[in-house]
Amino acid sequence: MAEGLDTPTAILANAAAALRERAFDEISYRTLGDSVGVSERTVYRHFPTRSHLLEGVAGWIESTEFPLSSFVTIDQFQDAVRARFVAFDSSPAFAFVCARAASISPTGEPEPTFFTRALVAMLAASHPSVNERDLRRAAATLRYFASASFWARMRTGFEMSAPAISDVFERTVAEVLGNRFALTATGMDGTSQRVAG
Which residues are within 8 A (CB) of 17 and not within 5 positions of it... i.e. 6 or more apart? Predict the structure, then answer.
């Protein structure tokens, strides 16, 4: 096992390393166990299904290969996503694993991720009059358009590279935060109201 890593992290690190040589579906639990120095049963104990393993590997890849830079403002968020799309272009096999993991049913906790909470906080700071429901809707939209899934769809479906994908992303941000989002405000009675723009 790699020095200083706990068993689940070592399994994920070795699975990610194996992805450089073969497809995810070709990585066996036995091979992972052998590479980490644990039994196949131990790998299954930590990752009972291939969906659990895929989700874990994708999370590990996102945190180590594609970390999103810190952001507080919308401009910083857009810069961070642009840089992430360039990183996806640099390691497309890893980005496609992240996209595939996002397309399966989640096996982890249903709690909103730090990324989701950061998006809602950023939007709340820049648009304080918008109600919580609309903040979450806008955050969900921005989160999808900043994801490996969106990158993969644009890359495979439209043969776009990071700069072109970034352009689509920025137009989406402008649309979400422009006409629709900026025109919604919370009235004094707590209901969502359209504001003349």
Answer: 35
Q: Which residue has the tokens 């689940």?
A: 8
Q: What integer pLDDT is reported at residue 178 of this predicted model?
A: 83
Range 7-48: architecture per CATH: Orthogonal Bundle (1.10)
Q: Tell me: the pLDDT tens digits for 90-148?
A: 999 999 999 999 888 666 666 668 888 999 999 999 989 889 999 999 999 999 999 99
Which sequence spans correspond to the domains of the chain? 7-48, 68-194
16, 77, 95, 134 from 143: Cα distances, Å? 24, 11, 15, 14
**Pair of tokens at residue 23:** 């497809």
- Taking residue 9's Cβ as centre, other Cβ atoms within 10 Å add up to 16
pTM score: 0.82
- Per-residue confidence band for 183, with pLDDT thresholds at 50, 70 and 90: very low
Q: Please enumerate in sequence order all residues whose Cβ is within 8 A of that of 126, keeping only pairs 6 or more positions apart, or say none.
A: 73, 74, 177
3 alpha-carbon distance from chain centroid: 28
DSSP character string of 56-107: HHHHHHHHHTSPPPP-SSHHHHHHHHHHHHHHHHHSHHHHHHHHHHHHSPP-
- Rounded distance, CA 124 to CA 118, Å? 10
- To which residue do tokens 């290969």 refer? 65
Helix (H, G, I), strand (E, B) or coil at 192: strand
